[in-house]
Amino acid sequence: MGYWDPSRSLGFQCRVSMDPIHIFYLEALSVLSALVWAISQPFSTSLECIAIFTDNMNTVDMFNSLRAQPKYNPILLTSVDLSIKHNMQFRIFHIPGELNTVADPLSRFRNDIAIKEAAQHTHLPLQISLFQPPHLTEGVAKK
Hints:
Elements: E1 2-5, E2 10-13, H1 23-40, E3 49-54, H2 57-65, H3 73-85, E4 89-94, H4 103-107, H5 111-118, E5 127-130
Parallel strand pairs: 2-5, 3-4
Antiparallel strand pairs: 1-2
């Protein structure tokens, strides 16, 4: 999994051992991780809305409609809880895969490519860190 903040030239990546068949789950979890990171930054107190881009249209649809299969609901619940708690809106936008030239190599730990591609977008060298996905909201307990 990977995401980056082009305005600060910061990249984040996380190794996962999940089967590639779960790519949609990982894409959604990456978006949530980016949201959690953005909300936790000192600059976020002056923001009203956070924009996150992904090359996975299913992920865009899930977050923008707030509808998903039950196994993805904890990701949605966590994002909505954060939005309410921090009084901040978020929007997820689609970016074509061929333009997603930094986050995609970050997610594959191809840091050489991510660094080279980031240099095309920003004057700062890309700083790469590891991240852990957030704990997910489980919702109301069943009786």
